[in-house]
UniProtKB/TrEMBL annotation:
<keyword id="KW-0805">Transcription regulation</keyword>
<dbReference type="InterPro" id="IPR036390">
    <property type="entry name" value="WH_DNA-bd_sf"/>
</dbReference>
<keyword id="KW-0010">Activator</keyword>
<feature type="domain" description="HTH lysR-type">
    <location>
        <begin position="2"/>
        <end position="59"/>
    </location>
</feature>
<protein>
    <recommendedName>
        <fullName>HTH lysR-type domain-containing protein</fullName>
    </recommendedName>
</protein>
<dbReference type="InterPro" id="IPR000847">
    <property type="entry name" value="LysR_HTH_N"/>
</dbReference>
<dbReference type="GO" id="GO:0003700">
    <property type="term" value="F:DNA-binding transcription factor activity"/>
</dbReference>
<dbReference type="Pfam" id="PF00126">
    <property type="entry name" value="HTH_1"/>
</dbReference>
<dbReference type="GO" id="GO:0032993">
    <property type="term" value="C:protein-DNA complex"/>
</dbReference>
<keyword id="KW-0238">DNA-binding</keyword>
<keyword id="KW-0804">Transcription</keyword>
<comment type="similarity">
    <text>Belongs to the LysR transcriptional regulatory family.</text>
</comment>
<dbReference type="Pfam" id="PF03466">
    <property type="entry name" value="LysR_substrate"/>
</dbReference>
<dbReference type="InterPro" id="IPR036388">
    <property type="entry name" value="WH-like_DNA-bd_sf"/>
</dbReference>
<dbReference type="InterPro" id="IPR005119">
    <property type="entry name" value="LysR_subst-bd"/>
</dbReference>
<dbReference type="GO" id="GO:0003677">
    <property type="term" value="F:DNA binding"/>
</dbReference>
Length: 304
């Protein structure tokens, strides 16, 4: 039978597609990790990982085994948490939080001081992932909870709305509209809007907004980081619609760009925390969500 350690090594490789990063994550040497994975393949009688000089790929069997391994490890972690009676102050208590890049760092930074005061011994392990991967990884047990930029309603998940975050117009400091403290959608007529990656709901809102405003929506840069979009605006490549919390943490100290709230029809994001309904740590997750909500909202528009 496979050992739990071998399953952990396999999941690390599946998550990183890198033997060196997986070994670092598991705090073992790369030869040790490689040897254990070969032994796992021998025990299962199947090839799990394709190794080449250029890259590491999971075989279909490897992906299936890794998915089940995540579920096994999640069950074991749940057993440990049951033994701790859902105590967030337990010495080894940890919470694996999955986030999208356009939400994670700047949202958590707002609430981090309060999190440390309230749960001083809770180890928060934050991992960024693509939006379309987060729900699947939560259900597979790779995350204990996730932060999403939209509401989620599923019978197998609990979720809490943390805040409703409006998007604001970010434009070059010398732009013709920069002197106005508040913008109307019609003010953006004829402008090019660089759009960020987002949920289907947010993308639909931005598309409707650009159509209403008579602005051209540039989709070529979806998936680009918020920092890169800000720099592209500074370079005069167009305007952008960026989240208010990001503007609060990054744009307001920038000299080359400014942010202006919209008077009407601003697209919004529903910042949401979700976790599996059957987790034994539901009380801890709910308390964490309440603390995040208290520190994030309400989120007003920010003027100049």
């Amino acid at each position: 039978m496979p050992t739990l350690q071998q399953l952990r090594y396999l999941v690390a490789v599946a998550d990183t597609l890198s033997f060196s990063r997986a070994a670092e994550m598991c705090r073992v040497t790369q030869p040790t990790l490689s040897m254990q994975l070969r032994e796992l393949e021998a025990r299962l009688g199947a090839r799990l990982v394709e190794r080449t000089r250029a890259r590491v790929l999971m075989t279909p069997v490897g992906e299936a085994v890794a998915r089940r391994a995540r579920a096994v490890m999640a069950e074991i972690d749940d057993m440990r948490e049951i033994a701790r009676r859902d105590d967030p102050e337990a010495p080894q208590a940890a919470l694996r939080l999955g986030v999208v890049q356009t939400v994670g760092a700047y949202v958590l930074s707002v609430a981090m001081p309060a999190l440390r005061r309230t749960f001083p011994r809770l180890r928060l392990q934050v991992r960024e992932e693509r939006f379309d991967m987060l729900l699947r990884q939560l259900l597979d047990g790779a995350h204990d909870a996730i932060l999403l930029p939209e509401a989620v309603e599923r019978p197998d998940l609990e979720s809490r709305l943390l805040a409703v975050e409006p998007l604001q117009v970010v434009l070059p400091a010398d732009h013709r509209l920069s002197a106005r403290p508040l913008l109307r959608p019609a003010d953006l007529a004829g402008e090019t809007v660089l759009t960020m990656e987002g949920s289907p709901d947010l993308q639909a809102q931005v598309t409707r907004f650009c159509t209403l405003a008579g602005a051209a929506q540039a989709r070529d840069y979806e998936g680009t980081t918020l920092d890169t979009l800000r720099q592209m605006v500074a370079a005069g490549m167009g305007l952008s619609l960026l989240p208010t919390l990001y503007i609060r943490s990054e744009v307001m100290r920038e000299q080359l760009v400014v942010a202006r709230p919209l008077a009407t029809d601003a697209p919004t994001r529903a910042l949401t925390m979700a976790w599996r309904r059957d987790t034994p740590r539901a009380r801890t997750h709910a308390a964490l969500a309440a603390l995040l909500s208290e520190n994030l909202g309400p989120i007003p528009g920010i003027g100049g």
